[in-house]
Structure formats: structure tokens, C-alpha cells
């Protein structure tokens, strides 16, 4: 059952790395599509996930869409900064950089964040 959450995290990370300018929409489509597949496993004749796995998958879906939104905001702020021609101080509430795979995995599986609803990396 761990593979379901790992596939969701890795898929979202790949989308964020490949398309930071539109990753929010892509991550939304990816995570909710996988969630639909995940919830339909029993209809497909595959083993039904445990309630804990279900809870983790639901929370990861929300966390990863939020992370992708933060990355897209960072990308738009960087694009706006380049268009203005001068560098300002970094805007408050933005990620410092696009998260690496290790940062994405750490954010996704951090106990405090996954089971207690801690805010995203921007807060």
C-alpha cells in the first residue's frame, strides 16, 4: 500500500520539475486522477487499501496540490522579476526554490504535516 503514496509523490515531483509554470493544474489533475483510481481499486478486482492508507492518500493529494501551487507562485514571481528588469528582495511567503526530490519526500511524509494538517512550506 506504500506504493500508492510513493507513486503520487513521485508523479507530482516530476510534474513540478518538468512544468513549473503550470504545475498547479497538472498536479491537481494528476493527484485527483490517481485518487479516483485508488478509490476504484476494489471495483477493478484489486485488494482494497486499508483505512490508514486511504487517509494518507487523501491528505497527500491535498498537500501535493498545495505544494505545486506554491511552486507555480514562485515561478510566476521569478518571471515577473525578470520582466521588471531588476531584482527585489524575495517576496514573503514564497518558496526559496523549486523543491528537490528529497525535500518533496520529506514534506510529503513528515509525520507532523501528514497526520495533523500542518500548513504548507510557504507558511
Automatic annotation (TrEMBL):
<comment type="pathway">
    <text>Lipid metabolism.</text>
</comment>
<comment type="similarity">
    <text>Belongs to the membrane-bound acyltransferase family.</text>
</comment>
<dbReference type="GO" id="GO:0006661">
    <property type="term" value="P:phosphatidylinositol biosynthetic process"/>
</dbReference>
<feature type="signal peptide">
    <location>
        <begin position="1"/>
        <end position="18"/>
    </location>
</feature>
<dbReference type="InterPro" id="IPR049941">
    <property type="entry name" value="LPLAT_7/PORCN-like"/>
</dbReference>
<dbReference type="GO" id="GO:0016020">
    <property type="term" value="C:membrane"/>
</dbReference>
<dbReference type="GO" id="GO:0030258">
    <property type="term" value="P:lipid modification"/>
</dbReference>
<dbReference type="GO" id="GO:0071617">
    <property type="term" value="F:lysophospholipid acyltransferase activity"/>
</dbReference>
<keyword id="KW-0732">Signal</keyword>
<protein>
    <submittedName>
        <fullName>Membrane bound O-acyltransferase domain containing 7</fullName>
    </submittedName>
</protein>
<dbReference type="GO" id="GO:0044233">
    <property type="term" value="C:mitochondria-associated endoplasmic reticulum membrane contact site"/>
</dbReference>
<dbReference type="GO" id="GO:0008374">
    <property type="term" value="F:O-acyltransferase activity"/>
</dbReference>
Amino acid at each position: 500500500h506504500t506504493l500508492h503514496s510513493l507513486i503520487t509523490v513521485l508523479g507530482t515531483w516530476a510534474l513540478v520539475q518538468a512544468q513549473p509554470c503550470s504545475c498547479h493544474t497538472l498536479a491537481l489533475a494528476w493527484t485527483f486522477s490517481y485518487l479516483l483510481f485508488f478509490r476504484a481499486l476494489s471495483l477493478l478486482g484489486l485488494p482494497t487499501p486499508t483505512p490508514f492508507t486511504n487517509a494518507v492518500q487523501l491528505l497527500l493529494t491535498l498537500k501535493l496540490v498545495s505544494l505545486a501551487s506554491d511552486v507555480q507562485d514562485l515561478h510566476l514571481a521569478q518571471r515577473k522579476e525578470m520582466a521588471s528588469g531588476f531584482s527585489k528582495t524575495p517576496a514573503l511567503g514564497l518558496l526559496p526554490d523549486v523543491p528537490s526530490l528529497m525535500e518533496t519526500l520529506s514534506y510529503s511524509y513528515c509525520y507532523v504535516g501528514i497526520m495533523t494538517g500542518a500548513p504548507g512550506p510557504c507558511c
